[in-house]
Specification:
With 242 residues, this protein is α/β, with parallel strands linked by helices. The protein has a single domain, classed as Creatininase (Rossmann fold, 3-Layer(aba) Sandwich). 40% of the residues lie in helices and 7% in strands. It has eight helices and four strands, in the order αβαβαβαβαααα. α2 packs across α8, α3 packs parallel to α4 and α5 packs antiparallel against α8. It starts with 8 loop residues before the first helix and ends in a 10-residue tail after the last helix.
Length: 242
């Protein structure tokens, strides 16, 4: 699987897509077993699969976003929420000048809270943008893939993210995930103290339960779940909403 789109301008012109898909990742620590680019790779894998399934214009990923809660670990790089919001709005404006008036944001990093506001504001007059996966989508995909953990317990570098990378980009996953589990318990002051208050390894979750088979089922499930978002943006597909 490519880590970035390889389409040419002529190929896009022939395909005449009406909706673009933009992966939004991050560059932040993911313990010792996953790369800093994990969220970008996760978002790219999901966006690539959705693009292939529905004929969307796949955009290159945003690779640095709002990872301030991970700043205690070396290698983490962030931009401000205002900068991220501006990037999204500029991308939308550029797409509209190209005749593409709808955008599906595939967000791979839970700390990008500002994206919800950007999407809400964009849709005041008519539906032009959707944020995927929602919490419902993640929960449904987890259940369909048979994951053993919940979204809360498996917050970071755990069963879900490790499974997706083992499936989509097995060459980047390091050994050691089998013994990297960490249960942080409640995290009432995450926004105040960041991740460092709840984990020393950078992991919150159960990567030991990960497998490439679960990763494939997660991606397949999310592709099916995306149809509801595309229908909300006015795109017709052969699949029914889930």
């Amino acid at each position: 699987m490519y880590m970035i789109t390889t389409a040419t301008s002529a190929e896009v012109a022939r395909a005449t897509p009406t909706v673009a898909v933009l992966p939004v990742g991050s560059f932040e620590q993911h313990g010792d077993h996953l790369p800093l680019a994990t969220d970008t790779l996760v978002a790219q894998a999901i966006a690539h699969a959705i693009s292939d399934a529905y004929g969307l214009l796949l955009l290159p990923p945003i690779t640095i976003s709002c990872s301030h809660e991970h700043s205690a670990w070396l290698g983490t790089v962030s931009i401000s929420s205002a900068t991220l919001a501006s990037i999204i709005r500029d991308v939308v404006a550029s797409l509209q000048r190209s005749g593409i008036h709808a955008l599906l944001l595939v967000n791979g990093h839970g700390g990008n809270y500002v994206l919800s506001n950007v999407v809400q504001e964009a849709n005041i007059d008519q539906p032009v943008m959707s944020l995927f996966p929602s919490r419902y989508d993640w929960d449904a995909a987890r259940a369909g893939a048979g994951l053993e953990t919940t979204t809360h317990d498996d917050m970071h570098a755990g069963e879900l993210e490790t499974s997706i990378l083992l499936h989509a980009y097995p060459q980047v996953a390091r050994t050691g995930y089998e013994s990297a589990d960490h249960d942080s318990g409640p995290r009432p002051h995450l926004l105040v103290y960041g991740m460092k208050a709840y984990t020393t390894s950078g992991v919150i979750g159960r990567p030991s339960a990960a497998s490439p088979q679960k990763g494939k089922l997660l991606i397949d499930g999310l592709v099916s779940l995306a149809v509801g978002h595309l229908h909300a943006l006015g795109m017709e597909t052969d699949r029914q909403d889930r």
